Amino acid sequence: MLKCRTVWRKLAPLAKSSSTLCRQNVRRAGLNNGRTPVCVPAAHMSSGPVGGGGDNLKYALLVGAVSVGGLVYAVVTMKSDQKRYEQRIEELSTRPQKTSTKPTAAQIQSEPPAVPEDQPAAAPSIEEPSSPAEVEAPKEETAPETTTPPADEPVVEGLPEAAAVPVVQEEPLVSSEPPPAVESVVLAEPAAAEPPASEPPEPQPEVLVESVADSTPVSLKLPAHAPYLLIGGGTASFAAARSIRARDPGAKVLIVTDEPDLPYMRPPLSKELWFSDDPAVTDTLRFKQWNGKERSIYFQPPSFYIRPEDLDGAENGGVAVLNNRKVVYMDVRGNKVKLDDDTEISYDKCLIATGGIPRNLQLIERAGEEVMKRTTLFRKIEDFKSLDKVSRNVKSVTIIGGGFLGSELACALGRRSTESGLEVIQMFPEKGNMGKVLPEYLSNWTTEKVKKEGVKVLTEALVKSVTCKDDQLEIKLKDGRVVTTDHIVAAVGLEPNVDLAKSAGLEVDSDFGGYRVNAELQARSNIWVAGDAACFYDIRLGRRRVEHHDHAVVSGRLAGENMTGASKPYWHQSMFWSDLGPDVGYEAIGIVDSSLPTVGVFAKATAKDTPKAATEMSGTGIRSESETEDTAVSPVASDTPSPAAENKDDFGKGVIFYLRDKVVVGIILWNVFNRMPIARKIIKDGEEHADLNEVAKLFNIHED
Amino acid sequence: MSLSGVFCSYRQEGKDKIIFVTKEDHEASSNAELVEEDPNDPYEEQGLILPGGDINWNCPCLGGMASGPCGTEFKDAFSCFHYSKEEIKGSDFMEQFTAMQQCLQLYPELYPQEDEASPKQSSKDSAAEGPSAANSNPAPEQDSDTSNPNTESSPGS
């Protein structure tokens, strides 16, 4: 550019004269490409006739010089672009390769002097033939091979600069190679979209260095690459980790979660843990299962996992959990993520299982800090602990929301109210508990049962405002009712966490929320989504998003299978369950939406048909681990329906079918247990049944 | 639709139909038609043994055995046992079994050494994730329970 300009300035006078000449020529020739033909390479110009004479000679010389200059400039630019491109490609391709240090005249840009210090320290410790450690492993690209033992093929792809790849070999030539190792390392770690030319010398040694042996100082460093990276540390993630480990021998799985806890099950937080006799339950987090045995809500004790720093060196792989870190950025093209502390981790396969965060009512959020301080959004262990403490210290608690979580918490707290005198209020806009799930008659019946658990239920309640007065909360409803309480629990839904959608370029579903994935739970190559955050295509029931525990297990397991090459669609239908006190318990499967037409087939209930009885008699444990406890229930609370007079309104036990276009798409087993496989089969068949009473016969509802 | 029997009552509430049935109503066997199952359907959840005869390491009935820190040792031992053609099944796999036992002992928290229970038993208690785990595989659970206690507990103790 500058060259051109200086040349132009020098030749300006000459150019002017020649330009007019040229223009005339152009006009004459009938061609007008609309440009002043001065600084343009000769090729673009129309072939103006060249007259004779000295002027023309000068003109010709000028044009020639200019065009040559232009050509030279173009060639130089393209060459340097080419070079940059090649460097980039080489950098990309050399990443997967495990490392052997090669001497290289790397023309890579600035190498920070700081980094070399780390390298020699790290490098010599590499001499572990059996361990597939990648010292200072640059972030990996889409390498199909997982961490193989130090590969002997340099895999450099024949690019001149490519030899800058640090490859660790067993030979100790390492010590002489720090500079090239450094350079390539620097090269290998641009932030996502940075052109290599402008690579900043960010040492980030904590990312580079691998923990191989415990003896070296580098053992405190996190892995820079995880063959299987699972974002989120909940149920789906754990199920996937287990699936991956089962199918891929020696797999190395890294779970990154922003919670401080290891993966745990959520259902007991709103059920069993509240019914425990143990006063230390908030610390132990243990509960009694259906078979009387106690277990922790954690899927596995800490000894099951390995430390993230040891992941690379683990001979048989393992599952590592990285707590208190959030993934804030995802680079899909580069196959890597960035954490909130700027650490970068690359992956081969990635699962997004970020779940969601509880929704809140806007008017509570806007009501100010005093109100927010007295509001609990319930989802995690810490919420359970805090609500447990609150419920022991206040006189009145109000639950806003009439769905699963709200109703379960209401019943759990209601149970407590009989001992402590705690006032428990539940309010929601629907006409009855589980109003969006159960048909109206059943929802009403359930509401009565919830009331018997000691809960003051306010139906058709729309909150208009919440204010803090005299250390209490005043809730004003739209119909004029006013409720005074000490604490609020908001259970008004879950907002799926799709924070990474933007950076990763992933589609978000507008109908159901969550990341949109296909029937095999895949969002894009190498990226799967499972659990609450996944809006997936169910071959049988259509596109949906499911927020239940069993779905997290099933989808997590499926994602893990597909991450290890299975290519299976979502097929095994997940189920869910709920218990509301000792009289009401149900298991359900499929689409259970109260807006659908339903057919309910009920039997007269006997005293034997309650969740309590089911736990005592059932021996196969088909119901979940977190079945209701079988400890003694307060006689006040229990209420077996009298068989005699109220035949019509006694929905003790039965089966409810949900229909869509005459096909059964959902089934609730109402106080009928251990029959889920039959229900699953009916949904899977997807047939039109003329007489659902006949189908109901398959369930033997009169038996236990 | 047909109403079977005198005792059955039926009413409609809006779009929802409610039927009450007595035991007698449901005594006759159902004439509802179900689609025949394909035992080799690749989409279906598999039990412990796959159609080809291999072990399904991802079977929920195994709990965390195949995926935990002793997963490799467990897989080796169990595979050897499974494919063993000896008359007393598994008599040729002492080495793998011992290796597994040694590994299990390193993690007592994970694999509590109960007297009568095999390691698999306790892992089921501590590791199963939820209903779908047990839901789809009640039968294999039985198999794995009965096939192992003899061989595992005697050399181990």
Automatic annotation (TrEMBL), chain A:
<dbReference type="Pfam" id="PF14721">
    <property type="entry name" value="AIF_C"/>
</dbReference>
<comment type="subunit">
    <text>Monomer (oxidized form). Homodimer (reduced form). Upon reduction with NADH, undergoes dimerization and forms tight, long-lived FADH2-NAD charge transfer complexes (CTC) resistant to oxidation. Also dimerizes with isoform 3 preventing its release from mitochondria. Interacts with XIAP/BIRC4. Interacts (via N-terminus) with EIF3G (via C-terminus). Interacts with PRELID1. Interacts with CHCHD4; the interaction increases in presence of NADH.</text>
</comment>
<keyword id="KW-0285">Flavoprotein</keyword>
<dbReference type="GO" id="GO:0016174">
    <property type="term" value="F:NAD(P)H oxidase H2O2-forming activity"/>
</dbReference>
<feature type="compositionally biased region" description="Low complexity">
    <location>
        <begin position="120"/>
        <end position="135"/>
    </location>
</feature>
<dbReference type="InterPro" id="IPR016156">
    <property type="entry name" value="FAD/NAD-linked_Rdtase_dimer_sf"/>
</dbReference>
<comment type="function">
    <text>Functions both as NADH oxidoreductase and as regulator of apoptosis. In response to apoptotic stimuli, it is released from the mitochondrion intermembrane space into the cytosol and to the nucleus, where it functions as a proapoptotic factor in a caspase-independent pathway. Release into the cytoplasm is mediated upon binding to poly-ADP-ribose chains. The soluble form (AIFsol) found in the nucleus induces 'parthanatos' i.e. caspase-independent fragmentation of chromosomal DNA. Binds to DNA in a sequence-independent manner.</text>
</comment>
<keyword id="KW-0496">Mitochondrion</keyword>
<dbReference type="InterPro" id="IPR029324">
    <property type="entry name" value="AIF_C"/>
</dbReference>
<dbReference type="GO" id="GO:0043068">
    <property type="term" value="P:positive regulation of programmed cell death"/>
</dbReference>
<keyword id="KW-1133">Transmembrane helix</keyword>
<dbReference type="GO" id="GO:0071949">
    <property type="term" value="F:FAD binding"/>
</dbReference>
<feature type="region of interest" description="Disordered">
    <location>
        <begin position="613"/>
        <end position="646"/>
    </location>
</feature>
<keyword id="KW-0597">Phosphoprotein</keyword>
<dbReference type="GO" id="GO:0048471">
    <property type="term" value="C:perinuclear region of cytoplasm"/>
</dbReference>
<dbReference type="GO" id="GO:0005758">
    <property type="term" value="C:mitochondrial intermembrane space"/>
</dbReference>
<feature type="region of interest" description="Disordered">
    <location>
        <begin position="87"/>
        <end position="155"/>
    </location>
</feature>
<keyword id="KW-0520">NAD</keyword>
<keyword id="KW-0832">Ubl conjugation</keyword>
<feature type="domain" description="FAD/NAD(P)-binding">
    <location>
        <begin position="229"/>
        <end position="555"/>
    </location>
</feature>
<keyword id="KW-1017">Isopeptide bond</keyword>
<keyword id="KW-0053">Apoptosis</keyword>
TrEMBL record, chain B:
<keyword id="KW-0560">Oxidoreductase</keyword>
<feature type="region of interest" description="Disordered">
    <location>
        <begin position="110"/>
        <end position="157"/>
    </location>
</feature>
<keyword id="KW-1015">Disulfide bond</keyword>
<keyword id="KW-0653">Protein transport</keyword>
<dbReference type="GO" id="GO:0005758">
    <property type="term" value="C:mitochondrial intermembrane space"/>
</dbReference>
<dbReference type="GO" id="GO:0015035">
    <property type="term" value="F:protein-disulfide reductase activity"/>
</dbReference>
<keyword id="KW-0496">Mitochondrion</keyword>
<dbReference type="GO" id="GO:0045041">
    <property type="term" value="P:protein import into mitochondrial intermembrane space"/>
</dbReference>
<protein>
    <submittedName>
        <fullName>Coiled-coil-helix-coiled-coil-helix domain containing 4</fullName>
    </submittedName>
</protein>
<dbReference type="GO" id="GO:0033108">
    <property type="term" value="P:mitochondrial respiratory chain complex assembly"/>
</dbReference>
<keyword id="KW-0813">Transport</keyword>
<feature type="compositionally biased region" description="Polar residues">
    <location>
        <begin position="133"/>
        <end position="157"/>
    </location>
</feature>
<keyword id="KW-0676">Redox-active center</keyword>
<dbReference type="InterPro" id="IPR039289">
    <property type="entry name" value="CHCHD4"/>
</dbReference>
<keyword id="KW-0811">Translocation</keyword>
